[in-house]
Write a structure and sequence with these properties.
Chain E: It is a multi-pass membrane protein. Chain E: Its main location: membrane. Chain E: The chain crosses the membrane at residues 6-21, 28-51, 71-92. Chain E: Keywords: Cell membrane, Membrane, Transmembrane, Transmembrane helix, Ubiquinone. The complex is a heterohexamer of chains A (957), B (134), C (163), D (510), E (118) and F (89). Chain A is an all-alpha fold and 957 residues long. Among the domains of chain A are: 265-555, no CATH class; 648-676 and 724-942, no CATH class. Chain B folds into two domains: 3-96; 100-134, no CATH class. The radius of gyration of chain B is 22 Å and the shape is elongated. The longest helix of chain D is centred in the N-terminal third of the chain and has 32 residues, at 152-183. The complex binds sodium ion (2 copies). The site of one sodium ion has 3 residues of chain A, from loops.
Chain lengths: 957, 134, 163, 510, 118, 89
């Protein structure tokens, strides 16, 4: 339980700084510190037992299906890292309180820091590798926030993004590796995995898993060739650098290699990948560090180098090397965190981090200077500090390591690395603290910082010295416990002490010290040499890489999604032809149909000819839009005739009614739109579209040919035919299907119509704003117009037509259940009759006489349709269940009342409402364009009116 | 079916068909829209009329009861054909006829409605058009 | 009362007949239902037809109808002949002006319609003040004859019916 | 409870009609109606979800006609989950829109309710033509919503959206027609029975029809190469609408899953798992192109839109594997990606509305109000979309990777999912950096009129993010449920029995 | 007869598709209308062709054409009508807002939309 | 006998339709085309009537009725469009 709490505390506590910042910076820091302290205390309470060899474990089920569970365990390795994370974390919190300036949002800083801390603790305590992955990626995210904390600095932003990209990428690789690992073992539990070294190493998936996991480790721990992000992350505030980039996050990779050491190490693959990468990193990082003028840059590359050192040790794969690695982790954490904090102090006090401007700072800030010198000496591996001991152990291990059967490679390079290490460490000592001040005009006048700022590094410095002097007393148990956990078996014999006698390692050490000192003396010269060397600039490469990736993405994405509907549609059409054909040809044994075909009658042939001619004419003459419309109208006419000919009277009625409303709609549109389509397609485009269209036509035509020439032996519609009259109460089976068997379709269908009208209304409502309004205001009528708006003969004719049409509408409506007709067609008939009034007598006059609101009609229609359904529902029957009765009235005789009629009434109302709303609204645009006042009189001139008309045109509201 | 009735029906059908054909033939034979307009508006209506009468007769004899709803179609056609012809003619004249040269004057205060405006307060949309043109 | 609910008995009658045409049967149920509709529909559409002319001269209507029907038949044969057997060049097509005495829009429209449906004439326009009809003749060697016939045969009768 | 299956369809429909009929002039009343209805919808769909998790598939025969002759609705674990998801999302959207968006055009709430109706109908129906009808309902409502408030860019994008989808609708009918023409049925369960019994000479037609239908579903699901409508549409739709559209692509995915596991699944003989060889490669390409778009984006909204394409790729990879594990993983990801896309669109709107003239262009602008708070929201949303821990996206991706293990394309799947995750991270990192960090180095501050702390939008956005958190925390129970979904999907006999009765099963030898 | 219908459907599809692929909204709308004719007839024809067997039940008549496709086509016609109405209005609205009727909202000859100026 | 008459009728109407088609495509004025379409509607009604007689069914009457009604409306709409541009004003 308390194990979980240790992990959760930083996360839960992360809300505290956000809240406490309102109470002041001290309160904020104190709250943050207490959280960490509490976690540290909880951890320390377990430390003795762990050091004694006990392993704590706790487990909660989270996603057992995947094998992802919240399980933590605490062993020596976990203890060491958790202690480092929480302990150094605490110091950093204190340090940051004084480091951050008044302008820096401290609450946010601590929130991020605690989140990061929690993630780190999570990594080192996870007993489930999927859980570990989660924490792993969380550290990437929280470090992204921390590095980018000073968001006004471009370097900070770029560094943050680079760190995120690199470590994030590694993390993603690691996900794959971990999943493979889990697959090999059959469990994602670390404790289980650690038991299965043989299984893992024997698996053919071992190498992929290893590489993928190492990618994660190397990126996070800034190992060659992924070392480049770390220095750029130094744009972060110094506490962040100290915490993340020396003590904790960069060690996550090391931790994981150590954690996985029992199962992954010991193979040649491991050795050559890990040890080599470590070795190269160690040397390269140190070399670069020598020439960094930025204090933190120097420390950053030294960190890279030291991480390489540990990596190399782990890579050796021997228990002894592992012990050395573990010990160096501890030592490095102590001196490097202190060094960073010192660097922060210098930065803070002098206002610069440029080494070239320093010198003699020891005199000005003796406390910081002492701390800096001691810790730097430890970094250089100078007796008697802790760095010396672990470096000796490293050299010792290097001495007897063969690399590709060569015994000199590793020792030589290790010595060179150590030598460089001495050089940059001494540079830090001599160029910063000792000697003469080189720049009298530092931004600030430096002096020792407040206690809170130097105490944390001082504490670490004390540790540096004490571990150096009494290694086995101070660090021994921890090293033992940790190394035991890493090795996962018997510890080798080793002694943690300053003096091991005259060993080869000592010799190498001495060479390194002397060589390093000499190198530093020639620093100036070397500097000019290296300055002239064109080294690959990692940041530039990374930026260039990202820029290339973005450019490539844009090239691909923008060219593909170029906004051309024509292309999108062509692709879609080609895709559908392709997928249809692929299906057709993927299925063997296609047989042509054997259904007896119908005779071709002469009228049918003529109809067909008409259709062909009009279709083709419509394509070839489509530039003349009005003509196109006429031709398409003829197509509609022929299709309707065809429906009648082929036993579908309902379809014909519907088609012909829809046709006319569509024509009216299109004409309304055409008045606004250009009357001609410009000829702009290139011959190539026409060719392409022609081919695509022909293919589509052949495909669809072929398919329906194949369908019509074969029989359909059983269809659900036989049931409809059988039950339409008896159960559905209607002899028009199509109508019974529409209002009853499949009434739900119709319910949806009228809603589509209603929505269309509402959308049209909404679309046109906005026409009065913006560009559209301007265009309408400046509209120029571009065609000759007749003088009479409302020809008298037409007005009179439509007046006669209206009652007739309504009569027809009622007739069509009522008979729908038994004969061709129904609510939809009736609705269109009535709509057309009304539209005729609008066309003949003008909008203004007609609208003034129209008592119904079309919106309401749509709503009412849908509700009416729904009511017939809901009333069945309320009665405990399924929605839309219909009933019918035969009513007998005197004189009138017997007639049928079906609830489906209520439904059909809903259809009727919706259709009328929708059509009228859409047309009426659309015509509003026209009137705006034509700048015509709406009319109050139905005819331009009424010959029967004796007096001159009094009413003047009304301006439309 | 009595032969006479059958004969009448057949004749009506033949006449109807012939008139329809003539109507459409006139439409392609005549040179100009206004003459053309005569052909379908008249020939077709009579052609259709005879077919509808044939149909009425046929169903009367065939089904035994007098069907009258064909009359409704005839009614519609007779009601609408003049309007159609009028509007088509107007549409033609507007774009193809010069009212001052090609048409006789109306002999009234106002000219032909297609060209000369009248209405409440002398509303004249074509003036608007002219203005914008200049 | 009667006036209020049955303002246009003729229209109601016409609609009733239309209904009977539509349902294609003469039964009590059909007639009653048709009657209901024929009363309701004129009421709800009254707004759209202000000043419906009251036409009561049933005899005149019948006479007019028969005359027109006959003329239509004749006209068709004549026009058919013109179309089929005359060279298009030899047709004397022209537009003639028919000054009107009628003032009711319904009457004018009926006249115009009649002209269109009868021999070789189509009403192609109306003067803006509705005082003249522009009639196109397919073949009219003597325009005045056409005008006279229209005024005599149709307009006179329509005046009786409508005014 | 079975009686209530129709309610998620009828309730919004009636509510929309009522809004149009009664309160169209009063925006406050519209909001009250709309929000109340949506809350009620959440309650109903939750009850249905609970019901479905404790029962087998439940059929609802509309008009009381027996299947396959009438239209049936079917509530099973999958459809119950989808309607619940829809209503939750809908609630967030309506809350967000009720602050201000709904005033920018007419009829927002009516269209919104109709949209819910269409989506719910598509999820619940067990009839393939009825599915078409609901597709059309949801599409036309979406056209209306998409164009809500108009504006040049929106109209341009809307035009493309509408035309592409209308073309898709035509294809839908062709597909349905071909299927009916050889099977004689429209009922999905009946189809499952008819498909294996189709004469071999007719099978080619059936297969071609089924594949054309698949293409149509893929248009909705924004699968490459028929995804082109999405970037413009989502990027230019009003924010709450874009958020609501998060469910629209899922309708496509759902339909693929439903039809191609039921009728063209295990029992389909020759045509078993018909869709798989098409979906998987296309999904992989979709994911790559989506995340390429994320990397390439120059506008925030198009960044999010492309990430939606990417997430559809991820989801359809899982669907395309057609294994129980993959599908439950995919469904988990579906839940996740719906909320995360919605959240991002909503948050983006809060950001964009504060950036004044800078809008959603990924261009450095001066600071704006609440940029800190919004940065947090954006960060969380981006984590969700990129599939970074600790949010559900990560768990979803892990599950999909895990489920892809046995696939022949495993290497491709893993590599593409992981690499594109990185692209997404980089893309969102760049965007976030420009929006929230770079502004710190620019002088001045943008001030825009409007409520400083718009309560409803913030509640809605946080609610969407909260859903991600809940999905994460309750990953176990959710996955339990989803495994139940997979079981039901793969054991089609349950569905068929529920719809057609026990006797029908003998026809397919189960 | 079947051939006439099949070829008509094919032709309608062909012409509809060609118009659909044009660059201006009006032909596209017309193309969609033609496509919906094609599809409606397709859907209708999937019930096979029959002459003079309308699905209106009559005493003594046993043979009827398949009514279901007809019902489906009716639904499809209505829906495509609603869709056509919307897209017609949309094309006007877009034209008014943008000033040209290109489907991509750009004038003739203009290069494809150059993304966004970043 | 009726059958022969019907066949004659069909042929006449079919030819008439073809002539209409010619006028529709040849124009030359829009009015000509509108006239052609209007006449087509009339011929279509004739076709329906003939067909109804041929099949001895009244099923197609409503079709003919609506053709008559709607043929008129669309012709009016086209003409109004040519005359005024705005058909509802
Ligand atoms: Na029923
Ligand atoms: Na249509």
């Amino acid at each position: 339980m308390s194990l979980t709490l240790i992990v959760l505390l930083p996360f839960i506590g992360a809300v505290l700084p956000a809240i406490m910042i309102r109470a002041g910076r001290n309160a904020c820091a104190t709250a943050t510190g207490s959280v960490t302290l509490l976690a540290l205390i909880l951890l320390m309470a377990k430390a003795p037992a762990v050091i004694a060899g006990e392993v704590f474990q706790v487990s909660y089920s989270w996603l057992p299906e995947l094998g992802l569970n919240v399980t933590f365990f605490l062993d020596g390795l976990g203890l060491l890292f958790a202690t480092l994370i929480l302990g150094i974390g605490l110091l950093i919190i204190i340090y940051a309180r004084f480091y951050l300036s008044k302008d820096d949002p401290m609450g946010r800083f601590y929130v991020f820091l605690l989140l990061f801390q929690g993630a780190m603790v999570g990594i080192v305590l996870s007993d489930n590798i999927l859980l570990l992955l989660i924490f792993w990626e969380l550290t990437s995210l929280s470090s992204f926030l921390l590095i980018g904390y000073w968001k006004h600095l471009p370097a900070g932003r770029q560094g943050a993004r680079m760190a995120l990209a690199v470590t994030g990428a590694g993390g993603l690789a690691m996900i794959a590796g971990m999943l493979i690992l889990g697959d090999i073992v059959g469990s994602y539990d670390l404790t289980v995995i650690l038991q299965n070294a043989d299984l893992i190493q024997a698996s053919p998936m071992y190498l992929p898993a290893l590489i993928l996991i190492l990618l994660g480790c190397f990126t996070k721990s800034a190992q060659f060739p992924f070392h480049f992000w770390l220095p750029h992350a130094m744009a972060a505030p110094t506490p962040v650098s100290a915490y993340l980039h020396s003590a904790t996050m960069v060690k996550a990779g090391i931790f994981l290699m150590a954690r996985m050491w029992p199962v992954l190490s010991g193979t040649p693959e491991w050795f050559y990948i890990v040890a080599t990468a470590g070795l190269v990193t160690m040397v390269l990082g140190a070399w670069i560090a020598i020439f960094k003028h930025d204090l933190k840059g120097l420390l950053a590359f030294s960190t890279v180098s030291h991480l390489g050192l540990v990596t190399m040790l782990l890579g050796f794969g021997t228990p002894m090397a592992a012990v050395a690695g573990v010990f160096h982790i501890i030592n490095h954490a102590t001196f490097k965190a202190a060094l960073f904090m010192t660097a922060g102090i210098i930065d803070h006090e002098t206002g610069t981090r440029d080494i070239r401007r320093f010198g003699g700072l020891l005199n000005l800030m003796p406390i910081a200077g002492t701390i800096g010198i001691i810790t730097a000496a430890s970094m250089a591996g100078v007796i008697p500090f802790n760095g010396f001991i672990s470096k000796e152990m490293m050299l010792e291990e290097a001495w007897h390591t063969m690399w590709l059967d060569q015994n000199w490679v590793v020792p030589l390079l290790a010595t060179v690395g150590a030598l460089f290490s001495v050089a940059y460490s001494f540079r830090f000592i001599f160029h910063v603290w000792l000697g003469k001040p080189r720049d009298e005009n530092l931004p600030h006048h430096p002096h020792d910082p407040p206690f809170g700022m130097w105490a944390p590094p001082a504490l670490l410095t004390v540790l540096v010295v004490l571990i150096g002097l009494f290694p086995s007393v101070i660090a021994g148990p921890l090293v033992a416990a940790t190394a035991g956990a890493v090795i996962g078996g018997e510890l080798p014999e080793y002694y943690l002490s300053l003096w091991h006698g005259l060993t080869p390692a000592l010799g190498m050490s001495v060479i390194a010290l002397i060589g390093g000192s000499l190198l530093l003396m020639r620093h100036g010269g070397l500097m000019s040499v290296t300055a002239n060397l064109s080294r690959p600039d990692a940041k530039a490469m990374f930026d260039c890489g990202i820029a290339k990736a973005v450019a490539l993405s844009r090239l691909v994405s923008d060219n593909l999604h170029n906004g051309s509907l024509q292309r999108y549609l062509a692709i879609m059409v080609i895709g559908s032809i392709g997928i249809g054909l692929s299906g057709f040809y993927a299925q063997p044994d296609f047989q042509s149909g054997s259904r007896e075909l119908l005779e071709v009658s002469p009228p049918a042939a003529i109809g067909w000819l008409l259709l062909v001619v009009t279709c083709v004419a419509a394509v070839f003459m489509h530039h003349n839009r009005l003509l196109t419309l006429l031709l398409v109208g003829v197509v509609g006419l022929i299709v309707s005739l065809g429906f009648i000919y082929l036993s579908a009277p309902d379809l014909a009625l519907t088609q012909i009614s829809v046709e006319v409303v569509t024509v009216i709609l299109m004409l309304l549109a055409l008045n606004i739109l250009p009357k001609e389509t410009p000829k702009e397609s290139t011959p190539g485009r026409k060719m392409r579209d022609g081919i695509v269209s022909i293919a589509a036509g052949l495909g669809v035509g072929g398919a329906i040919w194949a369908i019509m020439t074969r029989d359909l032996t059983n269809s659900i519609s036989s049931y409809h035919l059988a039950n339409s009259k008896v159960e559905g109460g209607g002899t028009n089976v199509v109508n019974v299907i529409l209002v009853d068997f499949r009434g739900f379709d119709t319910f949806g269908e009228i809603i589509v119509l209603g929505i269309a009208a509402l959308s049209i209304f909404a679309l046109i409502e906005t026409v009065t704003q913006g560009e559209a309004a301007k265009r309408l205001a400046n509209w120029v009528v571009d065609h000759r117009r007749s003088a009479d708006r409302h020809p008298m003969m037409m007005v009179v004719a439509t007046r006669v037509m209206l009652p007739l049409s309504l009569m027809v509408g009622v007739y069509i409506f009522l008979r729908g259940h038994n004969e061709p007709g129904g609510g939809f067609i009736a609705g269109l008939v009535v709509s057309v009759a009304l539209v005729m009034q609008y066309m003949a007598s003008g909008f203004g006059w007609t609208q003034n006489r129209m008592k119904v609101n079309y919106h309401g009609m749509i709503g009412l229609g849908v509700i009416a349709a729904a009511i017939t359904g809901v009333s069945a529902w309320v009665a405990g029957l399924p929605f839309l269940t219909s009933g019918f009765v035969h009513v007998h009235l005197p004189i009138v005789g017997e007639f049928e009342l079906a609830s489906a009629m209520g439904f059909d009434l809903g259809v009727f109302l919706t259709v009328v409402g929708a059509v009228m709303l859409a047309l009426a609204k659309l015509s509003q645009v026209e009137r705006m364009a034509e700048h015509v006042d709406i009319n109050a009189e139905p005819m331009d001139h009424d010959p029967s009116a004796t007096a001159a008309p009094a009413a003047s045109p009304e301006k439309e509201a | 079916m009595p032969f006479v009735i059958e004969l009448i029906i057949s004749l009506l059908i033949v006449i109807g068909g012939a008139f329809l054909l003539i109507g459409s033939f006139g439409m392609i034979k005549l040179r100009d829209l206004l003459p053309r307009l005569h052909a379908p508006t008249k020939a077709s209506t009579v052609g259709l009329g005879s077919l509808l009468i044939a149909s009425m007769l046929f169903f009367w004899v065939e089904r035994g009861h007098f069907t009258i709803h064909e009359l409704l179609i005839t009614l519609f056609i007779f009601l609408t054909a003049p309007i159609t012809a009028n509007l088509i003619a107007k549409a033609y004249m507007l774009l193809n006829v010069d009212p001052n040269k090609d048409l006789p004057p109306s002999k009234q205060d106002e000219g032909w409605a297609t060209f000369d405006p009248i209405g409440p307060e002398g509303y004249d949309p074509s003036e608007e058009y002219q203005e914008k043109e200049t | 009362m009667m006036k209020r609910y049955l303002p246009h008995p003729l229209l109601t009658l016409a609609l009733l007949i239309v209904w009977v045409f539509l349902v294609n049967e003469i039964s009590a149920g059909a007639v009653i239902f048709g009657l209901i509709l024929a009363i309701i529909i004129p009421l709800i559409t009254a707004n759209f037809w202000p000043g419906r002319p009251s036409v009561r001269n049933a005899y005149a209507i019948c006479e007019y109808g028969l005359v027109v029907l006959w003329d239509i038949l004749v006209a068709n044969v004549i026009v058919a002949g013109l179309i089929l057997f005359r060279k298009t060049e030899s047709l004397e097509s022209k537009s003639v002006v028919v000054p009107l005495d009628l003032t009711s829009p319904e009457a004018i429209t009926t006249l115009a319609g009649t002209i269109t449906m009868t021999p070789g004439t189509v009403t192609i326009d109306l003067s803006a003040d509705a005082k003249s009809l522009l009639v196109h003749c397919l073949h009219a060697p003597d325009p005045q004859e056409v005008v006279d016939e229209i005024k005599h045969r149709y307009e006179r009768r329509l005046k009786e019916i409508f005014e | 409870m079975g009686d209530w299956i129709v309610v998620p369809i009828v309730l919004p429909a009636v509510m929309a009609a009522l809004i149009v009929l009664a309160v169209r002039h009063d925006i406050i009343l519209q909001r009250v109606f709309s929000i109340t209805a949506t809350v009620a919808l959440v309650a109903v769909t939750l009850s249905l979800l609970i019901f479905a998790s404790g029962n087998g598939p439940e059929m609802y025969a509309l008009s009381d006609w027996p299947a396959p002759f009438g239209i049936v609705l079917v509530l099973d674990r999958l459809s119950a989950m989808m309607v619940f998801l829809t209503s939750l999302l809908g609630l967030g959207v309506v809350l967000f829109a009720s602050s201000e968006w709904d005033k920018r055009g007419k009829h927002f709430h009516a269209l919104f309710q109709f949209q819910l109706m269409g989506v719910n109908g598509a999820f619940l129906t067990g009839d393939i033509f009825n599915l078409f009808v609901f597709f059309e309902v949801l599409l036309i409502a979406s056209y209306g919503l998409m164009l809500h408030g108009a504006g040049a860019d929106r109209l341009k994008a809307g035009m493309q959206y509408v035309v592409i989808n209308l073309t898709g609708s035509s294809l839908f009918l062709v597909g349905v027609g071909m299927i009916y023409s050889v099977t004689g049925t429209l009922n999905m369960a009946d189809l499952a029975i008819q498909v294996p019994n189709v004469a071999s000479g007719d099978a080619a037609l059936l297969r071609a029809g089924a594949l054309i239908l698949l293409l149509v579903f893929c248009v909705k699901a924004a699968l490459v190469p028929v995804h082109f409508w999405l970037p413009g549409t989502y990027a230019n739709a009003p924010a709450p609408v874009a958020a609501l559209f998060a469910i629209m692509t899922k309708v496509g995915a759902y339909s693929v899953l439903r039809v191609y596991s039921l009728a063209f699944g295990d029992t389909a003989g020759d045509m078993a798992w018909l869709a798989a060889p098409y979906i998987l490669p296309a999904a992989l390409v979709t994911l790559v192109l989506g995340m390429t778009g994320v990397l390439a984006a120059k506008r925030l909204n198009s960044l999010i839109a492309f990430s939606v394409i990417g997430s559809m790729g991820t989801l359809l990879i899982a669907v395309g594997l057609f294994t129980p594990e993959a599908i439950s993983a995919g469904l988990y990801y579906l839940l996740h990606s719906t909320f995360s896309a919605a959240a991002l669109f909503l948050i983006a709107d809060l950001v964009v509305s504060r950036r004044g003239q800078f809008g959603d262009s990924l261009h450095t602008a001066p600071r704006f109000h609440q940029s800190g708070f919004l940065a947090v929201l954006f960060f969380v949303g981006a984590i969700g979309m990129a599939g970074m821990p600790p949010l559900s996206g990560f768990i979803g991706k892990l599950q999909i990777l895990d489920a892809a293990r046995d696939s022949d394309a495993m290497v491709w799947i893993w590599a593409i999912i992981l690499v594109t995750s990185l692209m997404c991270i980089v893309g969102f990192g760049r965007a976030g950096s420009v929006l929230f960090w770079k502004s710190a180095s620019v002088d001045g501050e943008i001030t825009v009129e409007g409520a400083k702390w718009p309560v409803l939008p913030i509640i809605a956005s946080c609610g969407m993010l909260g859903a991600l958190v809940a999905l994460t925390i309750f990953a176990g129970p959710v996955t339990d449920y989803l495994q139940g979904v997979s079981v039901q999907l793969f054991d089609t006999s349950q569905y068929i029995e529920a719809v057609l009765g026990e006797n029908a099963l003998s026809l397919i030898g189960q | 007869m079947e051939f006439l219908v099949a070829s008509s459907i094919g032709l309608l599809t062909m012409c509809g598709t060609y118009l659909l692929l044009r660059g201006r909204t009006f032909p596209v709308v017309v193309g969609l209308a033609m496509l919906s004719y094609a599809v409606n007839v397709f859907l209708f024809a999937m019930g096979r062709l029959t002459i003079n067997m309308p699905p209106i039940l009559r005493d003594g008549v046993t043979e009827y054409t398949d009514p279901l496709p007809q019902a489906l086509v009716l639904t499809a016609i209505v829906i495509s009508f609603g869709m056509t109405a919307l897209i017609v209005v949309l094309s006007i609205r877009t034209f008014l807002e943008i000033g040209n009727d290109h489907v991509d909202g750009r004038p003739a000859g203009a290069p494809s939309e150059a993304g966004d100026k970043n | 006998m009726i059958e022969y008459a019907l066949n004659f009728g069909f042929v006449c109407v079919a030819l008439a339709l073809l002539m209409n088609l010619y006028r529709l495509t040849a124009g030359p004025t829009t009015a000509d085309r509108v006239l052609a379409v209007d006449t087509m509607a009339i011929n279509a009604i004739a076709l329906l009537v003939l067909y109804g007689i041929g099949k001895a069914t009244a099923m197609y009457f409503e079709g003919a009725l609506l053709f008559a009604m709607f043929g008129f409306v669309s012709t009016v709409a086209y003409c109004k469009f040519v005359l005024r541009g705005d058909i509802i004003e």
